[in-house]
Amino acid sequence: MTAIVPHLRNAGDATQVDAVERFVLSLIDGTRDAKAIGEEAGLELAQIEAVLIRLKTRGIVDWTTAAEDEVELDDSQKSTVLALFARVGQASHYELLGVPRDADKKAVKKAYYAVAMAVHPDRFFRKKLGSFKGKMEIIFTRLTEAHDVLSDATRRAEYDQYIGNTQQARAIEEMIARTAEALARAEAEVRREAEAAAAASMPPPAPATTRPSGTMPAPVTARAPTAISVDDKARREALAKRLLGNRPGGSIRPPGMTAPPPSAPASSAPERPKLTTEEAAALLRKRYEDRFVQAKEGQLKKQLKLADDAEDRSDFEAAYTALRVANQMVPEDRNVAARLAVAHQRAAEQLSQVYREKAIYEATAQHWDESAKSWRKLAELNPNNWEALERAADAIVRAKGNLHLAAELAKRAVDLQPANAQVYVTLGTVYLEAGQRTGARAILERARALAPTSPVVASLFSSVQKLFGSEPKAPPEG
Amino acid sequence: MGEKVIGIDLGTTNSCVAIMGEKGPEVIENKGGYKTTPSMVAITETNRRIVGHIAKNQAVTNAENTVYAAKRLIGRKWNSPQVKNAVATSSYKIVEGPHRDVRIVLRDKDYSVPEISAMILQEMKVIAEDLLGEPVKKAVITVPAYFNDNQRQGTKDAGEIAGLEVIRIINEPTAAALSYGYGRNVDKTVAVYDLGGGTFDISILEIAENGVFRVIATAGDTFLGGEDFDARIIDWLVQGFKQEHGLDLRQDRMALQRLKIAAEKAKCELSGVKETEVNLPFIISRGPNEPLHLQRTLTRQTIEELASDLVERTVEICRQTLEDAKLEKTEVDDVILVGGMTRMPKVQAAVAEFFGREPSRGVHPDEAVALGAAIQGSALVDDGKEMILLDVTPHALGIMTFGNVFEELIPANTTVPTHRTKIFTTSRDNQTAVKILVMQGDSENDDHKELLGEFILTGLRRAPKGQIEIEVTFEINADGIVSVRAKDLETGLEQSIQVTATSGLTRDEINDMIANANDDLVDRRASEEFLAAKQDAEKLIAEIEKLFPQVEEIVKTSDFGRDAIDKARGIIDKAKAAIERRDVPAIKEQVDGLSRTHRMFKGVVQKT
Q1: Residue of B138 and B593 predicted with greater confidence
Q2: For residue A120, which residues of chain B lie inside 8 Å, CB to CB?
Q3: What pLDDT does residue B333 have?
């Protein structure tokens, strides 16, 4: 009996798995066999095997059979190899060797030799290594590549550039995700400042600067220099006292839009005209609104300053984020809107450049999965970039990825470039790949109409035709 | 301690065997007390194989049946220029084999080159077994770093024919570096300059404190060595003789063989002295009564002039290799000299000048390689040894693509094990099959690529050219085995081969040769026994025959005495017949009878 020992594959796309599949995935460690996983999961072996087969067809897992895999390694040796093997695909050269980014040649070499000593198949010459031999050789090849790249100044610089691109892209993505958050925070800040200021600055305008926690470290807004940090509660109490005539034991309400009419008998307030509750409420509202405008202006200035600084650094993504916040505050401000448009353009260009370089590097390295992702991100950024859409579709096909998605992207490219034979070719290829001969023929006919002399189109077309002609008998030729 | 693994340096002119002992690696001396054994094989008049010093000693009188420098022919094709050169200059006969390979004719019998090498390996094996007193089965054998796959395979085949399991083939300069770095705990970058009898190698290695030996770059010339220096001297002697006497010594095989030996001797002497005399009386005869003699003085300066381009070539290869290794001369911490030719002062001076430092005297130029092989052998079988050897592939590997364009997948100097992948497309419309030609870059000629193997990937979809993508993966595993896989990316169909380089022999031929070599080994062991028994018997016969007249005189009157004499004569006849038949058990049986007779005869003579 041969037992299946599944292991995770690096290339696998594990984003679209159902709950059972995810559960099974979580139990795969490269040493458990299907039976053990079943016991652990409380599922029948047949069920586990079915799940594993599904996962294997999607390239998420793979396995070796234990019977043919006679391995004379102890558990710690095995786990060292498996742990390294699992990281071969994803880890950077630095991570794989376990050296810092600024490691010098000597440190790189030392790390390489140390890991090589642990995984080189020659160290286990007399042992049976089974499937581990191949794994060790793959790890060793990757280690050597890491060492060779990091020991060569030119290659290392290229690699760092690539890593930098990847990280930059990730940072920008995070920043964009944070834009909405920053906006919400800015609004909340404005509101709170307005509230606090309105409350604290009864007749003599009070210097109430709050420093709400969690705001971005930003230049202090141009506000009253005599800022005294006062506890919110204490300030509100003081406000209420003043407004309501020092009503003892008065319940403190949050300074909302409308304060409930106080019903206590007013004690003598010698130097001040007595206010009715309505008047007090109106006054409070007015103060609040004034301060709101003031706080908003402060925030606006802050964001514009952030934008200026970011532009000075040529950090167009950060500038864009700040300007978007500013624009939300003063949608009517044409100046801000214009700056936002420019920043958007520049940020998109900058990010696009990063994605494009990344996508091309990945395509050169035949990391089609990654390349498809980068092209798609480029397309998201530039919805009218037909090339990104078309390349993304092409990369998905090469990565054996989701053909529906590829078709969708290619269709969008077609919509954008209805007179470009190239996009039809890609869409046609997607259809062909998906086995949709009719669709492929229709699309390629259009391509042929557009580029009647193109040999590529003609040949692709003829191969579709042949697919029709040769069906159902397969053409077995030697 | 694991099983014993011997390390064999199978050299062009001399071979050496070593083993890991208690105190470290040791070279094993042969019966004559020499640490190296000439890589020479001969077939005697009585059809006996002889190897080593005895083969060398009879080379002059048996020039046509004595093979030297067989290593230069191993794994080579009949039509290669190197073989053509050897055919023209060798005193033994080289013919074409059945697979465009090379055969050597000795006493009307064809031998493949691996078979000849196997005889030397077998000799080395026996030397080790005699010392250890037990059979040796495993070996690490060294080859020049610049040997290609076929040459390596030929060496491996030779090992197998000799009854050895070759657990690893390693490169000679790498082996030398192992013996240099073994047990020294150094952290250095070293250059190994290996100029042997037939080949030149240069390797740049890194030796790290934790037991890692990593080759950074290697290069060489498999047809540049001591033999070429000898050839220059022979040319010089032959030309001088021709000018003086108008006769070409090359026409006479025996003269050529004498010249060869004299040239080598003179070359070696000139490493120690400034001039030497080449004296070959009766080298040739002009007519029936006019013997001619060769007598010339050769100076060190002359030989240096004669061979200056050879030395220059090695320096040029050093320069190139340093460049490949991306190293400056100053980054090389030590230079190790290996191979007999590095004894030549001119060679030492050239190396010192190029690297800007005096070469290390740390390793023995004749023994370091075998010692390194023994070290690697013990590191492989002994799990406790914290040592690994990271070697490189000396030649680029790739496939031949449309229009005879070589597409490289694994470049030269890539650390093994390794694997590389590239995607190719079809080159013709409606192509349903592709032929994958696995090629290896050639050491001597950049334009020429050696075919290592081929296979066909079929079942491709009919499509215009350039549309079907084929993913080709090359893999070299830790044992140096190359495998190649081609995959149709559209259908996922896959074809692969393990490249089994050919030494020019088929599997069946190798099996036959293994059987023959075993027979020969049994025969050889038996012949030692035979000789011993024969000597015993002949000694007794001689003593008995000496006593016959006396005994006959004493016993002539007695019938009993006559019987005894007839019986003694019978035993002697039987013993002689047994010796004639080389029947060892029968001889031994007769020896018993002979010694009884001898005792009796002596008793009879003494009594009277």
Answers
A1: B138
A2: 388, 390, 478
A3: 95
Contacts of B461 in chain A (CB under 8 A): 463
Instruction: Please report how the helices A45-57 and A19-27 are oriented relative to each other, as an axis angle in degrees rounded to 10.
Output: 100
DSSP A221: P
> Are both B451 and B543 inside the same structural domain?
no
CATH number for B326 = 3.30.420.40
Last residue of a domain, one of A130, A151, A172: A151
Inter-chain contact B388–A122, Cβ cutoff 8 Å?
A: yes
Q: Which residue of B has its CA nearest to A137?
A: B417
What's CA B39's distance to the chain center, in Å?
6
Cβ neighbour number for residue B428 with a 10 Å cutoff: 11
Residue A318 belongs to a domain = yes
Question: Using one digit for the tens of pLDDT, what is the confidence trace for B318-345?
Answer: 999 999 899 999 999 999 999 999 999 9
**Domains: count for chain B:** 4
Same domain as B453, residue B422: yes
Domain interval for residue B240: 226-308
What CATH number is given to the structural domain containing A49? 1.10.10.10
Considering the domain architecture, whether residues A31 and A178 belong to the same structural domain is answered as: no
Q: What is the CATH number of the domain that holds B445?
A: 2.60.34.10
Residues B164, B45, single domain; the answer is yes
List Cβ neighbours of B204 (8 Å cut-off, separation of 6 or more): B189, B190, B191, B192, B215, B216, B217, B218, B321, B322, B325, B327, B332
Smallest Cα–Cα separation from A12: which of A47, A63, A48, A61?
A61
CB B127 within 8 A of CB B30: yes
Residue A309 in tokens: 């600084």
**Chain B residue whose CA is closest to A110:** B208
Sign of CA dihedral B427, B431, B434, B435: negative
Please tell me the distance from the alpha carbon of residue B171 to that of residue B188, in angstroms, as a whole number.
19
Residue A122 has its nearest CB partner, among B214, B429, B478, at B478
